[in-house]
Amino acid sequence: MTVIKPYCSLSQLKKIIRKARLRLLELHHNAHAGHIGGNLSCLDSLVVLYDAVLSEDDAFVLSKGHSAGALYVALWSCGVLTDEDLQTFAQDGTRLGVHTPANLIPSVLFGTGSLGHGPSLAAGLALGKRLQGIPGRVFCLCSDGEWQEGSCWESLIFAVHQKLSNLHLVLDVNGLQAFGTTVEVASLDLESLAGRLTAFGAAVATCDGHDLLALVEHLNCPEDGQRPSVLLLRTCKGKGLPFLENSLASHYWPLTDEQYFQGRAIIEDDDA
Fold this sequence. Notes:
Layout: H1 10-31, H2 36-53, E1 59-62, H3 68-77, H4 83-86, H5 118-132, E2 138-143, H6 150-161, E3 167-173, E4 176-177, E5 180-181, H7 182-186, H8 190-199, E6 203-208, H9 212-219, E7 229-234, H10 257-269
Parallel strand pairs: 1-2, 2-3, 3-7, 6-7
Antiparallel strand pairs: 4-5
Helix pairs in contact: 1-2, 1-3, 1-10, 2-3, 2-9, 5-6
């Protein structure tokens, strides 16, 4: 049975997601910042984590550093950041850089953006919790493309060897990276990733990364007890904006004024 935090029903969660998408568009448009596609592909999972899954004992690491905007909006959705905070995104002297800083924002423990570092940091946190007898889980959001980094696989070997069942890696599998599809660049699709991760000894599951109920169920699943878990999210780069969905350009280019207003109109008209 799916358990959602008492203050956040599924219908409330859908409304939060809609507001978060609008706020993310505004955030990136005002800052003239790129990477909107990859932010939209993981926004649903981040909002679900912060509004329906994470407890005060849990920790989160954003390895997919290009999606700092989505993380800030998720923190805004649960009251950690304010509108005034978001208005400083990517501005001089801000705490809200294009990549997350360390120890400047509540609950953001590490500065990330050099891809592939997050799983190692998260594994260290998980081991530290166990050694100190501290309760709680550690979640780490990664991109699919960064699993071309050897450090990701080294951290998984470590986590499996240490039986870090409190470690939960979440991979945003949108199938696109800087210079093409993950299949073209490195033969990495969801099926091959699942097989390789399983072979390394992780407990692997997959789900629709935009199905809110499925996200709540999978992210709140019981610990395996003997090994770390990896959840592969089937996502769409640029989710919610048909003119950007599955577009490689959305990895780089900021929204034009026309795209911003078109995107707002699409999301505002979406009753789902």
